[in-house]
Amino acid sequence: MILSEPKPLEEVLGYLEGEKSVFILGCNGCAQSSGSGGPEQVAEMKTKLEAAGKKVTGTKVIDFLCEKALVKSGLRGKVNEVKAADSILVMTCGIGIQAVAAAVNKVCHPACNTVNLGGSRGEWPGSERCYECGQCLLDYTGGICPLTACTKSLVSGACGGANNGKCELSPDKDCGWELIYNRLKARGQLDKLKVALDPLDHNKLAARPEMLATSRYALENHDQEVKA
Ligand code: SF4
Ligand code: SF4
Fold first, then answer.
1. Among 211, 67, 193, residue whose Cα is nearest residue 224
2. Protein residue closest via CA to atom 5 of ligand 1
3. Which ligand is nearest to the CA of 176?
């Protein structure tokens, strides 16, 4: 189980600035149970974006956005609607957003923050990973998580030590920031690298105190008692 929360609407609208149209994608897995990206939230988001003057070319809720094969098959009947949009707004966890950004050659914006549940972070077959930082940065990094793709979890650019595209600390691993640069370049988004992000709030990387007593937290942490 991965817990995600909706980002404030103003933040989402900021991501969509300069764009006229958008396709909305939701997830019937963890995001649906989190109340952040199921059919109801997708319909609500469509209404809000249209009220804000955006054209919503289409919507789709797919069972598990963290599975790229399901993303591709789920969008088969929506190709024209996706093509007609300037971007895709993805309403799910950081893993699902990354999977969509990898599976579809389109600018993808995150509509949710993934928050720490202290547990296993689910089981999924793809290579995408999320540290549940509670302040998803994927809009600025082409849908590649800087915390997990970069060995040092740098969020403000490359360390400069990469050698032939490989990380200076893990030569068997691609440099996460080179991947981010290449993705942004391919999608015409290199200006994103000019955005000065706030420093990461490390308090958000831990489970919140009020969450520790919940059944949801206990289900993810086997030493905890599950309350009825
Ligand atoms: S930036 Fe990375 S760690 Fe943070 S929520 Fe997004 S995918 Fe997860
Ligand atoms: S070489 Fe790339 S992946 Fe490795 S620590 Fe530096 S920026 Fe991160």
1. 211
2. 136
3. 2
Q: Which two tokens stand for residue 160?
A: 């400069």
Taking the complete model, does pTM exceed 0.90, yes or no?
Answer: yes
Residue 166's DSSP bridge partners are 163, 174
CB burial of residue 68 (10 Å; 0-12, 13-18, 19+): buried
Reported confidence tier of residue 219, pLDDT bands at 50, 70, 90: confident
CATH 3.40.50.2300 residue ranges of the chain are: 3-117
- 3-117 has CATH 1.10.260.40 classification: no
Ligand nearest to C-alpha 97: 1
Q: What is the pLDDT of residues 9-50, one digit of tens each?
A: 999 999 999 999 999 999 999 999 999 999 999 999 999 999
Is the pLDDT at 117 greater than 90? The verdict is no
Q: Which of 27, 46, 36 is nearest to 8 (CA)?
A: 36
Residues with CB under 6 A from ligand 1: 94, 113-114, 130-133, 136-138, 145, 147-148
